[in-house]
Amino acid sequence: YEVVRELGAEEVRWFYREDRKTWKPFIGYDSLRIELAFRALGSGGGAREPAAVEPVCVRSGLYEVDVASAESYPVYWNQTEKIPVMRGQWFIDGTWQPLEEEESNLIEQEHLNRFKGQQLQESFDMEISKPVDGKEAIHSLKLSRNHVDWHSVDEVYLYSDATTSKIARTVTQKLGFSKASSSGTRLHRGYVEEATLEDKPPQTSHIVFVVHGIGQKMDQGRIIKNTAMMRDTARKVEEKYFSNLATHVEFLPVEWRSKLTLDGDTVDSITPDKVRGLRDMLNSSAMDIMYYTSPLYRDELVKGLQQELNRLYSLFCSRNPEFEEKGGKVSIVSHSLGCVITYDIMTGWNPVRLYEQLLQKEEEELEESWISYEEQRLLEELYITKQRLREIEERLHELKASTISKPPVLKFKVENFFCMGSPLAVFLALRGIRPGTSGSQDHILPRTICNRLLNIFHPTDPVAYRLEPLILKHYSNISPVQIHWYNTANPLPYEHMKPSFLNPSKEPTSAPDTESASAAPSPTTSPVMVRRHYGESITNIGKASILGAASIGKGLGGMLFSRFGRSSATPQTMETGKDGPEGDEKKATTVGTPPLPHSSSGFLEPTMELEHRIDFELREGLVESRYWSAVTSHTAYWSSLDIALFLLTFMYKQDQEETDKSNLDTI
């Protein structure tokens, strides 16, 4: 039989507690290494200094545990609250939650003093006729608020010594109930499963930098919470759909805003006091867009994000040296204004160049006007000096020829750039980018810089815009690709989804006051079907319940959400059957553009298609108010299972291609 001895490192389990919730166990690999570090710390005792123990890397390398202070802290981002960790030796029956460390240590000490070297009886050798109730406690230990009774070596119960518990105990015992079954909590020594080094997290093959948009000044920890939500959602999806792969995707938050000083508190000092709360909210959110369009602070924002991306990448590679050797990939997920700044970093776009061109024009105009001889001589000298300066700069650039010659530079190649709720298209349009004739992504983002650009948006997100019509104009009349629901069985792979037309011709900008004005096309399960519109389907579900809130804001909606009017459709349900050649003609013709080449099925001719689709739209919930979702949708991306599955589908693409082929055959 087993003999009572000190607990082995694999029987002890370490726990951590986040946000003052319950204690969560570390996985075996982590717990075992923390315990070994803890024992190394203890072994250096005596008169000498305690041995210095290096922090232990835990939770897929995202956190470190300092055993001496019993705290855990994140490696890649700053967090004000430290995460307490705890050594579990005695556990509560059923929940396997650890007893507080002080009590646990006292019980363990008492247990070893009393029973060390004694044999543990096998459960089946026990006298079945004699349950715990009948047995007297062979040993007892008084703690501050509780006491512990040992009925045998491995039958240990904890009782509360609060007055109410004592009264309850006397009553139940008088009624004939045993002390143990009525108010005791059974304790177990050692964790339910042994910790092994095999129980370790898979290797990271792909890292994703998550970049926040505006409003970060208002709530500095928000991006860390959002990334944690995205990471947890992705873990669920990985377990369900990608558990056969031996690698995993890691999400790291890029918090670039808090380190910037910008104008100090000048803007705060000029803000009037009335409705201060609302003004402060605007100052700490919308103000970032104004900073970004200011030539004074734009560079600071760009450098802030660029340095943080490079710092995180270098730190990750130094802690995971095999990542680069094994061809690890990097993707970026950006939200809102973060998309624009990330895009500018990757492409090296800079408004100063536009300004220089403007100055040059002015110089040429100045030369043509009448000026004195002295002024002319100085201008010529200035012109020659500038010319010389430009030549020297060009030669210097040639010498410094790097992989991506345009500044600012990232230390890694971006595999996928996912934009969420992104106003990037507006910024590009205002910089003069116009639709071209080739369907290549290179028109807005060269493939040499970033392999794949994907623009994800919620249909009612007021900050998000489409990118595809900036490459080929007629795509404004082709619906974005619908992102599959998380639980769709055998979804059609995105690259096999054919483009389908939005039914109607475009409407004028101001939305007329009809129910269909606020309606946008509904999702369809298959791109072949004509898209139905919400105007009528919502009405049928129940006007009063759903549109009650929306109708209050009807007038306001006309002004605020004229964007929806622009992209929305005239109601035409499946039953009207306007599908012949005339229907097709209507579908293809937009105001001011000629009819497009299309086949009778309503799909585009291949010559007019994009190489890869870029705009992907979340499916709208049927029972949500469009006006309410316009307010909430801009921040609803983080915890969406549909988005997590979408991101992982593209990041695991190469690993999954073989399985996809077999799925296609079955389709």
From TrEMBL:
Gene Ontology CC terms: cytoplasm
Residue stretches of biased makeup (Low complexity): 508-527
Family annotation (PROSITE patterns): DDHD
GO MF assignments: metal ion binding; phospholipase activity
Bias-annotated ranges (Basic and acidic residues): 576-588
InterPro entries for this protein: DDHD_dom (IPR004177), PA-PLA1 (IPR058055)
Pfam families, alphabetized: DDHD
Domain DDHD as annotated: residue spans: 410-653
Highest taxon of source: Eukaryota
Residue numbers spanned by region Disordered: 497-529, 567-603
Regions crossing the membrane: none
Assigned protein family: Belongs to the PA-PLA1 family.
Protein name: DDHD1 Phospholipase
Upper classification of the organism: Eukaryota, Metazoa, Chordata, Craniata, Vertebrata
